[in-house]
Amino acid sequence: MATSAPITVYRLTDHARTEMARRQIQESDIASVLAVPEQTETIRAGREVYQSRLAWGGPPATYLLRVFVDVDHQPPDVVTVYRTSKIMKYWRTAP
Questions:
Q1: Is 51 inside any structural domain?
Q2: What range does the domain containing 71 cover?
Q3: How confident is the model at residue 93 (pLDDT cuts 50, 70, 90)?
């Protein structure tokens, strides 16, 4: 996975806001992943995924929060976001 620049200013699309509400994901969690991602991946020119492992629930379980960003806009657009327990499916180790 490539290293991308941290994002501190961004715009949430209507779709991203809908998915955040449906999936009960807080904007503060998105902001923390965008500011200090553990990993990033380029999906296609102009779109990247920022991801980090976070604890959710009670008792806390570790999930991967994946944030899809159109970085070719100013400010970058958060397109969608989701969390998954299938961390190893998306986690990339260094070659």
A1: yes
A2: 11-90
A3: confident
- When the pLDDT of each residue in the chain is averaged and rounded to a whole number, the result is 93
User: What pLDDT is attached to residue 3?
Assistant: 59
Average pLDDT over residues 62-73: 97
Torsions phi, psi for 82 (to 5 deg): -155, 160
- What is the arrangement of strands in the sheet containing 39-44, beginning at the earlier edge strand? 11-12, 77-84, 61-70, 47-56, 39-44
Determine the Cα–Cα distance for residues 65 and 37; give it in Å rounded to an integer: 10
Q: What is the spatial distance between Cα 49 and Cα 64, in angstroms, rounded to a whole number?
A: 12
Number of separate domains in the chain: 1
